[in-house]
Amino acid sequence: MNDYLAKAYAFDGKVRLYAARSTQLVSEAQKIHGLWPSSSAALGRLLTGSVIMGAMYQDDHELTIRIESDGPIEGMVVTTDAHGHVRGYVGNPKLSFQNNDGKINVSHAVGSGRMHVTKDLKVRDIFTSTATLQTGEIAEDMAYYFTASEQIPSAVGLGVKVNTDSSIVNAGGFILQRMPGCPDETIELIEARLNKMKSTTTMLDEGYTPEAMIQEITQGDHQLLHTMPIAYQCDCNREKFERGLLSLGSGQLKTIKEEDGEIETVCHFCRTAYHFDEAAIERLIEEADNQNK
Ligand SMILES: [Zn+2]
Predict the structure, then answer these.
(1) Which distant-in-sequence residues (6+ apart) come within 8 Å of 234 by Cβ?
(2) How much distance in Å is there from the Cα of 272 to the middle of ligand 1?
(3) Which parts of 103-166 are beta strand (E)?
(4) Which protein residues have their CB within 5 A of the ion that is ligand 1?
(5) What is the pLDDT of residues 217-252, one digit of tens each?
(6) In the chain, what are the domain boundaries?
(7) 111 Cβ neighbours under 8 A, 6+ residues apart
(8) Rounded to the nearest whole angstrom, what is the distance from the C-alpha of residue 263 to the centroid of ligand 1?
């Protein structure tokens, strides 16, 4: 089953709803980074919530969601666009904490801190807004971010279920947002339904599609707008790393060449290694010198 998200308007257009199944993309992240259960659940929830957040925008927007916190996870970074592509990494991939009921503990791994959301609109403006983490469980933190920083009251549910061998059973989530003019009775009705609703991972276990999750919340009072595939995707390439190295300037490149003889760079998001041998560094030094002429 492929990953995708579904978008709908509900309750007379007064509520906007997104739901996603992200099992494969979270599995991809788990394999790339060798994530243990708490790190998987934390990053998987953030990847899922972020790819949905990205889908709220259009065109060339790029979003970076950064968790800066004091827990052993040592922070997380996720980048996403408006077309369902997402990638991310954690400071510490090897964390596994359990609650007394055997469930994966995420909040202890994350700790307290802040969520920064940077929007690159690709024209010239870059905006960053920040919200304090509420629980470190990611879903509540995102809901608070939308409500406090974007003034859009929201409810967020995110879940990642992990096997004992650390592989991913399922992952997914939903974001529900109150639109202007939404009556309080509608919000009360939704809150009552959300309180009674099964967890995201239970729904996915039972074979719920994103559309079925939306149906569970609206009981049919919605209009499905569209669906979109979502996937873990990194757009790094050798040229990007070359540009980064060039920005060091020829002086520093010469020092590296003399001291190390080679450069090994690894992409944080996909762990692809790019190797620059002595001849490659010499070419970069030449290019850096030419740029300064
Ligand atoms: Zn990469």
Answers:
(1) 87, 267, 269, 270, 272
(2) 6
(3) 113-120, 126-132, 154-162
(4) 234, 236, 267, 269-270, 272
(5) 999 999 999 999 999 999 999 999 999 999 999 999
(6) 4-232, 238-292
(7) 69, 70, 71, 72, 73, 136
(8) 17
Q: Tell how far the Cα of 233 is from the centroid of ligand 1, in angstroms.
A: 8
Ligand 1 mean position to 127 CA, how many Å? 24
pLDDT, tens digit, 9 for 90 and up, residues 63-117 = 999 999 999 999 999 999 999 999 999 999 999 999 988 899 999 999 999 999 9
**What is the residue type of 234?**
C
CA of 92 to the centre of ligand 1 (A): 18
Q: In whole angstroms, how far apart are CA 280 and each of 196, 215, 241, 252, 274?
A: 61, 56, 12, 15, 11
Domain 4-232, CATH number (from 2.60.120.380, 3.55.30.10, 3.40.50.10540, 3.40.50.450): 3.55.30.10
Q: 238-292 maps to which CATH number?
A: 3.90.1280.10
70: three-class secondary structure by DSSP: coil
Q: Is this model's pTM higher than 0.85 or not?
A: yes
122, pLDDT greater than 80: no
Q: What is the phi/psi pair of residue 271, to 5°?
A: 65, 15
| 4 has a pLDDT exceeding 90 | yes
Assign 115 to helix, strand or coil.
strand
- Ligand 1 centroid to 193 CA: how many Å? 41
What is the CA(273)–ligand 1 centre distance, in A? 9
Angle of helix 278-292 relative to helix 238-246, nearest 10 degrees?
A: 60
- The 10s digit of each residue's pLDDT in 139-161 is 999 999 999 999 999 999 999 99
